[in-house]
Amino acid sequence: MHEIALGSQLVSFRINRSTRARRVTMRVRVGEVVVTAPPRMPVARITAFVESQGVWLTGALERARADLAPPIAIGDQIPFLGCWLNVEAGAVRSPRRVGDRVVVARGAAIDSQIEMWYRGVAREHFAQLMELWAPQIGVAPARLAVRAQRSRWGSASANKTISINWRLVMAPPEVAAYVMVHELVHLAHMDHSSDYWECVASYWPTHRIERAWLRTNGSRLLTGPHPRASRVGDVVAVG
Asked: Which candidate, 89, 112, 121, places its Cα nearest to that of 102?
């Protein structure tokens, strides 16, 4: 990690070297500053670029902090596959869904319990989607991995592992299903060629709509569940 001074604060940034980079670029995502640069560009030149973008960077960091999800409290609602579930406390040892409620253990950290629940239901949901779509597409994935990627929604590896970001269960169901189809098609086309997209469109004709939804709302998903706070009035978030 590298640091620069912006006014009275120190800002850390990570340098990502890429052979495909022809110039230096900077991105703020979920509060992390990532600077992408060509492999041989000197660190001093990269740092000078970051310093020259001080006004933009300060504003981007402020917006990223504003987008951070507030802590979840009892009485809030959380997004789940196109609907909202009420968060309640109960006599449970681990979080569980009961109808339109997610019941968490009293006295334990709510956010960590909710994430635990999301991860569990994500594995079950995407396993079902993979079982549904793989035979239709004509591919045979070796395994499913539910991960917490910081910059992607899914991937398909050469060893036929399908990896999916658990946060997608906070998105509408058609978005989550599209990502699974997108990755399964990669087992037949390990690229983003025209043949690949034609194949995706044959199984998911509205894929441009789901991709647009992720471009618009994806950064919100990456920061975690944005609760709708019924105890103090609605806060519109992902959904």
From this structure: 89
78 pairs with which residues across the strands? 85
Domains of the chain: 2-67 (no CATH), 119-228 (3.30.2010.10)
State the CB neighbour count (10 A cutoff) for residue 61.
17
pLDDT single digits (tens) 125-179: 999 999 999 999 999 999 999 998 877 899 999 999 999 999 999 999 999 999 9
Q: Which residue has the tokens 């009485």?
A: 75
Measured distance CA(103)–CA(82) in Å, rounded: 19
pTM for this entry = 0.72
Helices (H), 79-172: 110-137
- In three-state secondary structure terms, 198 is helix
Concatenating the DSSP letter of every residue in 149-191 gives -SS-SEEE-TT-EEEEEGGGGGS-HHHHHHHHHHHHHHTT-SS
Torsions phi, psi for 187 (to 5 deg): -70, -20
DSSP 209: H
Question: What sign does the CA torsion over 203, 208, 214, 217 have?
Answer: negative
